[in-house]
Amino acid sequence: IISGIPYTNIPHRLRAGIMKEAREMIHPEGAMLVYQFTRTVRPYLEESFSSVREDFALWNIFPARTFHCTP
What does the alpha-carbon distance between residue 48 and residue 23 come to, in Å, rounded to a whole number? Predict the structure, then answer.
């Protein structure tokens, strides 16, 4: 799954529901890649995924944070 949904701008219940559904849809060997402009989403990702790796994409206009999440 690749997602650029502005998670920090949506209500908590909706955000939690999206994270839960995404986690349930991912194959055990799959992943979800999330790109955001702030780190605010990280705690929400960590609630739903067992592993969250963060990186920074300077080549993007505007530079973005990427989060690689696995079940």
Answer: 7
Q: Read off the pLDDT band of 61 (50, 70, 90).
A: confident
d(CA 37, CA 8): 10
| Strand ranges for the chain from DSSP E | 2-3, 32-36, 51-57, 64-70
Per-residue model confidence as pLDDT tens digits over 1-41: 999 999 888 999 999 999 999 999 999 999 999 999 999 99
Q: What is the DSSP letter of 71?
A: -
Burial 53-70 (b: 16+ CB within 10 A, else e): eeeeeeeeeeebbebebe
Is the Cα dihedral 56, 15, 17, 12 positive or negative?
A: positive
In sequence order, which residues have a C-beta less than 8 Å from that of residue 59 and are 6 or more positions away?
A: none
